[in-house]
Each structure stands twice: as structure tokens, then as C-alpha cells.
Amino acid sequence: MAGRLVLALPVLLFLVLVGHCRGGKIGVCYGRNADDLPAPDKVAQLIQQQSIKYVRIYDTNIDVIKSFANTGVELMVGVPNSDLLAFSQYQSNVDTWLKNSVLPYYPATMITYITVGAEVTESPVNVSAFVVPAMRNVHTALKKAGLHKKITISSTHSLGILSRSFPPSAGSFNSSYAYFLKPMLEFLVEKQAPFMVDLYPYYAYQNSPSNVSLNYALFSPQSQDVIDPNTGLVYTNMFDAQVDSIFFALMALNFKTLKIMVTESGWPNKGAAKETGATPDNAQTYNTNLIRHVVNDSGTPAKPGEEIDVYIFSLFNENRKPGIESERNWGLYFPDQSSIYSLDWTGRGNVDVMTGANITSANGTWCIASANASETDLQNALNWACGPGNVDCSAIQPSQPCYQPDTLASHASYAFNSYYQQNGANVVACDFGGAGVRTTKDPSYDTCVYLAAGSKMSTMNSTSLSARSGSSPHPSAKCFSSLMFTLSVLISAVML
């Protein structure tokens, strides 16, 4: 009996840790403010064909909910702002809603989140005081049904909930929202729910192009870094800066443990004449880079390596939305379900999203390992290039063309150059913390061909590489390996 208990403790701890072993999730927002969209069952088929696993809708439309039954897609449903008053006043209103709109379709339809209100601080009618009472009533209704631990409750917000967002470390909530914000944050902590926010670097660029460059908004490697003067943290893109401004605002109120979930982000594919940034190319660039950022668990400067879940807005253009031209043109697909532009949902494709073409080098330059770099620096840089850097390192596996010579410098040179060419042969892309150096001499040899001007890169479906080759496996594999190590340490400690 004692032996069983000895082994049970680390196993239980391991199972707890497994719950945290996952990468960031990418979902899509399915808005329906249009009169030309395909039927919900056709939309569900499209989403399955694209292997999209997470979908957000803005209400509990029965036809939509039914269409996702038995699809394996996890659904985020919403309580509209117009229902907040009724939901906050009477528990019976919420009980009836749950009985009619959720329970008959669950769990065949995998409803995992309920958003109670959406961007209430932006609403023309002030309904913010009703949010927390409505959230509590929804929780009570779920608890009666035994679903309070299976369906998570939160509410979405715009970046406008902050009074200041730059620099990120100075992020702070608007004090006029304190009356409902603090109770809501306490509710989220109590229920272990995320703080949901809609982030749009597009608007930061569109509203202030002299201060926010297009490259910075699009995650482009050509963008100029922005340094937070208070923390020294370096920001290479606007998305990270916006996420961290929320994090610092939460931290200032002592809610630093709250997870942040981005429930909307995207880029318009078309706009009015003055909206020069609203193009299909820019939309493809932003969303492609965003997906890669999330899938690779890049995290943010303030919380590096931390996974973040993001929902891309939006599945279709919505022709009935009011406002300027771009408001109706955030879609990924036309009503006939054809793509407005190509998008790789896996985050591991290798399209030059700045041009839509295969990636090539420029001016006959290559990037190789510096002879002055230490082995530790080379190995760390190699691991990064083959992992978060998204380089296809299959050529430096055993028996592959660039495996020999089997030296760290040789393998690192191949990976460094691939990353360098992948990012437009930009000088910065050959830095690797001083471990890389540019050369005008082609480092190719025998059958090992280094990418150069005019050469085409293969699709990056990275296979499993040996540690010697500087492989960096998929985040879930890295997490599992870490957990196995943790488990072995726990067992050893208990056995002692």
C-alpha cells in the first residue's frame, strides 16, 4: 500500500502538469452580419476542410450551433449586449436561455466558452454595470446543469479599455471603468477564466502611420525595433506590444496571473481610398505571421514562450456592417467559400507573404556560422533557427545531403543561411546574437546546396531531427519531454 502511495504522488503531479502542456490555439470568428453567406452546415464543412478546431460566434443561433454537432470543433458562443440587462436581473431568464439554447445541443456541439457581453465599453448604450451580475447568473445556471467546470465564462474587451497602452509597461486601465472592471477581474480569477481582448494592429497603423510603420504592424522582419524605455524590452511587432500593454495593466492591479486570450485579431482585405493598408496582400501577411507567432509559442517580450490563444477575424466579409469600407471586408473567404487569399492554418508553411512568391536571396550573399562564436552560442542559435525560426532543417539530418561534415559549425551555417534567405537576406536576419556572419562566397558543396538568389525553398514540413542537428520539436513534443523529465525526477525523489 505504501509503495502505491509513493508512486501515486508523482503520477498525480504529472497529470496536473499535463494540463499545462499545450501550444497556443488558433481559431476563427464566424460573424454573420451579411445577407449573402452560405448556410451554417456548409460553413461547418468549410471549417472542417480547413482543419480549424476553434470557432467563435457572437450569439447562440440554434442553426449554427446544430451545424457544429459531432464535428470536433470547439465553439465559443456569446450573450449579446442587448441581453445583458435581462440576464443580470433574473436568474430565471438565464436558466431558460441555457435550457433552450445550449443544453439540447451539448455535448454533441462542443461549447467550451461563453462570452457575456462584447466590448461593452464601446457600446453606444452603457451596459457595463450588467456584465458581472450576468456572468454570475450564467455561472449559476451552468452549475445547476453540472457544466460550470466544462464551460468557461468571460467577456471580451477592446483595447479602448486602457487609458494608456504605450509604452507597453505603462499600460493601464481607464479608471472610469473601475466600478465593473475590478469585480469582473476577481470573477475571472475565481473561475480560472481568461481575460479576453480584441487587438487590431491595423487600427494603430491606420490611425497613426507616422508613428506606427506598416512593417511593424505586419510582423515584418524589416520593421524597426521599438524599445520600451522603462523595461528595456525590445518589440519587433505591434501585436506583442498590445498584448503586453494589457499584461502590464493587469499587473498594475495585481492580477498578473490572469491568462490573456485574444478573441479577435485580423486585417481587412479591402478599404476606402484613404485606407491604403487594407489590401489582400497585407491581410495575408498579417494573418500568416500571426498564425506562425501563435503556433510557435513565441510569447511576448514580457512573457516569452508563453502560449496565447488567438481568434482571427473574420471568416467572411460581412456586407451589412455599417461604417467605412474596411468594416465590411475582414473576411478570409468569399460567400462561395473560395479563398480571398491563401492562408496556412498550420503556421508551418513557407510562403513569402510579403510578395506571395517563393523566397529567394538577394545580391549573392549567404549567411554562415561565425568562426568566433562559441559552441554554446552556435547550438542555441541552431536550436532557435530550426524551431521558432521556422527553418526546414531536414537537410542536416543523418544520411541527408548537408549532414556531412557532422560538425556544429556546418549544421549551423546551413540553418543560418536558410533563415537569412527566408527573411529577404536582411542584415539583421544573419545576426543570431553575433553567431552569424555574411559572406559573398557560396558555401554550397557536393550535393549540399545552400539557398541563394533565384533558388526556391521547399515547404517547411520539419521532420524529427536529432539533438546533434539542433532540432527543436513541435511545442507539444518539447512540453512532453519536459514533463517526462519532471516525472522521473519526482519518482526518484519520492523513492529516496
From TrEMBL:
Record field: catalytic activity: Hydrolysis of (1->3)-beta-D-glucosidic linkages in (1->3)-beta-D-glucans
Coiled coil segments of this chain: none
Name of one Pfam family that matches: Glyco_hydro_17
Keyword annotations of the record: Disulfide bond, Glycosidase, Hydrolase, Plant defense, Signal
GO biological process, one term: defense response
Source organism, top-level taxon: Eukaryota
GO molecular-function terms, A-Z: glucan endo-1,3-beta-D-glucosidase activity
EC number: 3.2.1.39
EC class (word): hydrolase
SMART domains, sorted: X8
UniProt cross-references to SUPFAM superfamilies, sorted A to Z: (Trans)glycosidases
Domain X8: 365-450
Family that this chain belongs to: Belongs to the glycosyl hydrolase 17 family.
Protein name, per record: glucan endo-1,3-beta-D-glucosidase
Organism of this sequence: Urochloa decumbens
